[in-house]
Amino acid sequence: MTRHQNATPGETSVQIVLDRLGRPEYALLPVEQFSALVLLARKGAGEALPENAPKGEIIGFDAMLDQALEFLDRLPLPERDEMTEEAAAIAAYDAAKERGEESFPAELACRLLDGDNPIKVYRQYRGLTQKGLAGKAGTKAAYISQIETGRRVGSTKTLRRVAKALAVDLDDIV
User: Fold this and answer.
1) Which CATH superfamily is domain 106-173 in?
2) pLDDT (tens digit, 9 = 90+) per residue, 123-170?
3) What's the whole-model pTM score?
4) Exposure winner among 46, 63, 75, 160, fewest CB in 10 A?
5) Which of 133, 136, 21 is nearest to 88 (CA)?
6) Who contacts 27 (Cβ-Cβ below 8 Å, separation ≥6)?
7) Quick check: 134 and 147 in contact, CB under 8 A?
8) DSSP conformation class of 40
9) In the β-sheet with 2-4, what is the strand arrangement from edge to edge?
């Protein structure tokens, strides 16, 4: 993701490249400004500057960084919120992946969002029949059918066993 900062006379023109979490990762600037920055760093390190080094005021790194951050602050609020929401989703995914948590295909998520019964969705995803799930959960296939169709709610005890048999959290099926 890239954000541009337009320069006014006397300012640096910086292009900020954001990482997947929406944080500034790279700052791109014109070559002459980069050269000036290198010269400034060399001067700060006590090196002698070449004879052909540009004279006059050279914008410092801190000033360039401040300008880039000011630019990010000026992004329209909806755009920043969108970046923040996307960054949060990516961070949650990365954290779950690091913890070794299972990920599910988009089709499964779409079925859940469409209102399909979660026990049925996860059961079919796991390749189980109602009888197979009932056997793993220690209940009867007819009871699983009644829960999936909404004719019965299912006791907390049974739903915990069903969740365990499906290898999901209880919250995922209720």
Assistant:
1) lambda repressor-like DNA-binding domains (1.10.260.40)
2) 999 999 999 999 999 999 999 999 999 999 999 999 999 999 999 999
3) 0.49
4) 46
5) 21
6) 14, 15, 16, 17, 64, 65, 68
7) no
8) H
9) 2-4, 15-18, 24-28
